[in-house]
Structures are given as C-alpha cells and as structure tokens.
Amino acid sequence: MNRYLSAQAIVIRKQNLRDSDILYTFLTPTLGKLVALAKNIRQAKSRRLGHLQLGNLVKVSFYSINHQYWISEASTINSFLINKKNLTQFNLLFYFLEILNNSIAEGQIIDNIYVITNNLINSINKNKFSDFIDSEIKLMASLGFGIPQEILNSYHQNDLKQCQLHIKNFLESVIEKPLHSNKLFH
Asked: Could you identify which of 55, 67, 154, 184 might form a hypothetical disulfide with 159, taking C-beta atoms 3.0 to 4.6 angstroms apart as the criterion?
C-alpha cells in the first residue's frame, strides 16, 4: 500500500467523531470503498470541510499509517449542492448513499459501480426519476443481487413509484435491515 495517494472519489458517508474529527467513506474508481479520517476538520480554519459534503465528486489526497487512511487535502470536482435542491432530491441522495454504503465492503472494487453511482447522482441532480430507477436496477445487477420479476414488471409498465417501492423492499431484504435515510416510499 502506498503511503501517499490521490484519488477521485464520491463522498458516500460521514460520521462525526469526538472533538473536531470526521470519519468519511468514499467510493473511488480504482480503490473501491475507502474509509478515511479527517482530523480537526470541524475547526473554523479547515479548508477541507466545504468540499467533503455527501454526494460530492472530489479529488482527495490521502496518507496511510498502519492501514488507516487520513485525509490531507480535498477539492471539489462537482458539488451536489451547486444548484437549489428540493427535499425529494436530498431524500433520494441519502437513501441511495445508505444503500451503497451497506452493500459494498471496505476495499471492495466492483466493476461499473463508480460509473453507475456517478450517473445516479446526476439523475438526482437533474430531477430525472426514470433515470434514477434505471441506474438503481443497473446497480442491483452489478452488485450481483439479481432483479426480481416484480421490479422488472413495474419498470416496463412505467409504474416508477411502484417500481421504487419494490426496489426499496428488495434492497432492505438483501441488506437485512430497514433503510432509515428515506421515508418517502412508505
């Protein structure tokens, strides 16, 4: 493992820790899912905090000590928050990022997941629900979950709301716990 590395990444999770530290989870094209610590990031003088928002596409510089990654620098390539968003868009983003975080193991690299994730976030940005559903189905296939017939039927009938409900229920059964980030589809 290189001691210093830089990667393009999508911010998929953040967890506040003691003091002013945050533990971030990223999805990268070449390193897969990667967890890294940002020390003292919640201090007023930190330049990194604004860049490391959920759903952002960023360039991150890491260093490694004892198999733990630390964030040294971060810059935004594409911000999810660049345009005004509505509550539905935020809910869809948080829902999707929760699925992604629960479906991929740390260090796991899966073909096409990074591209699908980028496309899915762009579909949320552009408020294109049909593209969002299409990307979710591609994600399930790439993760190897298979696609139940009820999802395909509702998708082909263009019943996107019902299709989304079937996808959510199926994914909750796969990860064996309820999704908490999104309550739109109840």
From this structure: 154
* CA–CA gap between residue 68 and residue 79 (Å, rounded): 26
Rounded CA gap, 51 and 100, in Å? 20
Question: Is the same domain home to 72 and 90?
Answer: no
- Is residue 2 within 8 A of residue 16, CB to CB? The reply is no
Whether residues 65 and 98 share a domain: the answer is no
Q: What is the pLDDT of residues 99-137, one digit of tens each?
A: 999 999 999 999 999 999 999 999 999 999 999 999 999
Q: Indicate which CATH number applies to the domain containing 15.
A: 2.40.50.140
pLDDT in tens, 8-29: 999 999 999 988 889 999 999 9
pLDDT of residue 66: 85
Round to whole Å and give the CA distance between 150 and 121. 24
Q: Is residue 182 part of a domain?
A: no
Residue 58's DSSP bridge partners are 9, 76
